[in-house]
Amino acid sequence: MRPRDSQRSKVYKAEKVLWDSCKSFLTVGDMQQYINACLSTVLVRQKYTNSYTIIVTDGRGRRHACCSGSNTFRKLKMPVWSRKEPILLHELAHALTDKKYSVHGAEFCNNYLFLVHVFMGLNCYNKLISSFKENSIKFSIQRPKETCKSDDSTYRRDPYP
């Protein structure tokens, strides 16, 4: 059984700082392509060795985005309103966080911060950290060892062309 999810509303409130200047996705195919590109980057493959498949669906009939699945796959359900880069990375962070941890606990927040840093850049990462601190969210700073340089051949900051 997972520990109590005591940070849920705080995380939702804090992440809204990223919604204004973010990329939006029109189709499920666009989101799936983005997720596949994220998962194929060197930094993500080095940090997460999970071998399950992540499938993006349209979230039909749902009010909120969510991540569900089993030991072999994860399904990200994304209603139309939620098709923004930070929300997609939020759900990806759920998919990459071990189920033994609290749903929006420190481990999830660390994974979310890592993904934001790698794919949205340092400015968004710093905004999210500041917002986490303002909302008293538990996390620990674990920046990727590599820098966010788009010209690095082993690293692509923007996985979606």
What is the structure about, briefly put?
By secondary structure, the chain is mainly alpha-helical.
Report on this structure.
The protein is mainly α and 161 residues long. It has one domain: Zincin-like (2-Layer Sandwich). The chain is 42% helix and 9% strand. The protein contains six helices and three strands. It has a three-stranded mixed beta sheet. Helix 5 runs antiparallel to helix 6. The longest helix has 15 residues. The protein is globular and about 35 Å long. It starts with 7 loop residues before the first helix and ends in a 27-residue tail after the last helix. The relative contact order is 0.20. About 6% of the residues have low confidence.
Structural features:
161 residues, 3-stranded mixed sheet, globular, Zincin-like
Mean pLDDT: 84
Backbone CA Rg: 15 Å
Please identify, by name, the CATH architecture.
2-Layer Sandwich
Biggest sheet architecture? 3 strands, mixed
Category by helix and strand content: mainly alpha
Strand content: 5-15%
Arrangement of strands in the largest sheet: 1-3-2
CATH domain class name = Alpha Beta
Globally, the shape reads globular
What is the count of distinct domains?
1
Tell me the helix content: 40-55%
Number of strands: 3
Q: Identify low-pLDDT runs.
A: 147-156
CATH topology: Zincin-like
Q: Give the N-terminus to C-terminus distance in angstroms.
A: 40 Å
